[in-house]
Every structure is written in structure tokens, then in C-alpha cells.
Amino acid sequence: MARHVPPETTKQSGLIDLAGVSGALTLSAQGEEAWIDVIRKMDSVYADLVGYQVELEHKNAELEEAHAFIDSVLSAMTDVLIVIDSHGVVQEANAALVKLVGSSAESLKGRPLADLLAPDSAGFASLLAARLAAGDPIIDREVSLMDLTGRPAPLSMNGSPRFDHAGRLVGMVLIGRPIGELRRAYAALEQTHDHLRRTQQQLVFAEKMAALGRLVAGVAHELNNPISFVFGNMHAMKRYGERITRYLQAVDSGAAPGELQRLHAELKIGKILEDIGPLVDGTLEGAERVSEIVQDLRRFSSTQKENVESYDLVRVVKTATQWVLKAARRKPEVEYDMPEAVTITGRNRSVHQIIINLVQNAVDVLGDAERPLIQVRCGVDGDRAWITVRDNGPGIKPEDMDRIFEPFFTTKPVGEGTGLGLYVSYGLAEEQGGHLDGANHPDGGAIFTLTMPLEGQAHA
Fold first, then answer.
1. Could you give phi then psi for residue 337, rounded to 5 degrees?
2. Is the pTM of this model over 0.90?
């Protein structure tokens, strides 16, 4: 082995070899710089390690918070949540399932979902396998799981396929809602709907009675005309009967022909014979008119559901309009533009009430008009009939346009309107497949348009 020999000194002269010492110092300085560089790199690496450690701890804290959040959400769910793999084996289960079946979450993991099914839902395992193979969802399937008491617990089950980061199907997430809760919710909803329907029927009847109250004076006047006509005819018939009886008594007593001729002329028997036919016809016509008005009143005020029948729309529109006008304190001019008759199938009582409400509203807004005018039109367009009621009043304010069919909305002073007329009319129109619309006419005033199918049997 070679041995390192330190630089020698010159014994003769007693001087140090300066070249050798200089070389050694140079090597020593280079080594120190190398160590310093190494220490610096170690410091840098250590600093990086400390930074990585801090970041890792921060990430771990976020991960723990995320896990805690997810666990709290799963624990708070009242619906059952089950995560299964592609073979139908349970991977995760929430607290709702644990509470339902009475097993811990750890004991549920690794068990086939088929083991949790009630006997009446055994077929769901086959369906689940087929949906897993195809990657299809499960929508609203009724499934029963065995609860902790050993009884079937029905669930409404929905499932969505689960994929990994590479897009491979790895299982399914199942959500089951207890059907008992759904049934209770549906029962509560049905009860609320029934209450709303009864309330709506009461509102319809209340508005109908309010309208009838407003129209009593007009209806009384409407009845008074034919009744007065019948009374007048009957008094004339009574007088004619007395004269005919007197003449027939003379005939029966064997009076001379001259006497009979005198009585015939005196009692005006010829005039009576000419007049008695028209008197009877007029009396019958008046009685029939009274009967029609009474029947209209009965139909209008009845609480029973009206049957679908054929009727003359023009007659109903005119009758309803006249009822309102007869009861009005200030009677506006009315212009009709309608054919002689329009036969329609539906519920004429509902249409009668709609027209009454529309005409009554028109009369109300024309209270201060200089020349109040209402135009009532009717016609047929294809398979639908239409009716328009227009007034020459101030029209509908833009801010009120979207609210005119809302219940209890009214622009009338307190105590003069219920705010239900248009709301009820809109509902009655919709019930028989029609539609009611309100707008401002280009020439001024408001116009309401009612459209209905000519044949209403299918909708009814």
C-alpha cells in the first residue's frame, strides 16, 4: 500500500516547503465549500419536507372534515341509502338502514343485498342484477326489507348506476323512502285538496247567492210582467164566462129566436168567440214564461252538480243580461250582435252565472258614464262558441291586469264587492273546457271573452 508522505522540510536550510503547504490549504478550502453546499441543500430539503408535512396535515384535516360532513349528512337522512358493488354486495349503508334492519353498518358491509329483502320482494334481486348489467337506473320500485322485528318494511326504491374515474360501472347507489311516510303525505295532501275543493264550492255558492241577491228586484220585475198578463187574461175570461153562461141559460130556457138574437148582440158573443182563442194562447204563453223564469232561478241557485245537456246559448246570454239590467238602478244601453240561436252542449247554469257576473261588472263600472253602453256579442268559430261583453267605461288599469282573476281582488269600495265574481267565473269556464280572458278594448273600455267547446260531453 502506498503511504502518504507529508511534505518534507529541508534540514539543511531549516526552511518549510511553501509549495506543499499551499496545495494542502487549497484542498482544505474546497472541501469546506463542498460541505457548506451540502448543508445548504439539506436545509432546503428539510424546509421542503416541513412544507410538505404542513400541507399534508392541512389536506388530512380537510379530508377528515369532508368525511365528517358526509357522515353527518348520511346520518341525518331519513331515507335509506345503500351503496352496492357490481355484484349486488353492500359496500356502504347509512344510519337509516341500520335503524331499520337493526344491524350495525360494519355487519351490513359485505352482505348481499338479497339477504336483506323480504320474501315478497325476492324478485327485486333479479331485477337489480339485470339493471346492474345494463347500467340502467331503477325508478320508483316498491321493495320490502326485513326490519328488526322480522316484518316487511315497504320502501319506494330508486337507484342510479355508479362509475369510477375511468368510466367503468362499479355498482349502484340505492335510495329508499319509507312508503308509510309517503302514504301519510298523500293522505294529508288529499285531505287538504278535499278541504280546498269544499271551500271552493262554498265560495262558488256564496258568490251565486250574492249575485242572486243583487238580481232579486230584476227577477221580480221579470216575473211580474207575465203574471200580470195572465191575471189580466183570466179576468177577461171570467167576464166572458159570465156572458156565455147567461146566453146558454137563455138557450136552455127556450127563449124566442128574437130574444136570443138580442142577447147575442148585447153580450157580444161573436166578439167573445173571436177573442177567446188568443186569450187562452196568451195565458198559456205567460204561464210558460213564468215557469221558465222559475226553472232558471232553480238551476241558478241549486247546489247540485249540473248535468251536461244541449241548450240555446243565445237564449241563456239574453236571459242573464236581462236579469242584470232589470235590477240595475241606472240601466245602460245594450247592443246585441248574435245569431238567432247557437246550440251548445255543456252546463248552461255555469254559463248563465258567468254572463251575469260579466254584465254586472260592466254595469258597475258604468255608474258615472255619460252614455253607458254595453255590447254583447256571440258567435261560433270552428268547433268553439264565443261570447264577448264589452263596456265603454274606463277600462282595466295596467297594474291590475294580472290580478283581475285573483280571489278577493276588487277595485270596488269596501262592502260593494266580494272580489269573487271573476275568480268564480274563470273557474266555471275552465271546468267545462272553456277559457275566460279579460283585456282593454282598443277603442276604450274593457272586454271579456268567453270561449267554450260546442260539444262538451268529452270534457264533462
1. -140, 85
2. no
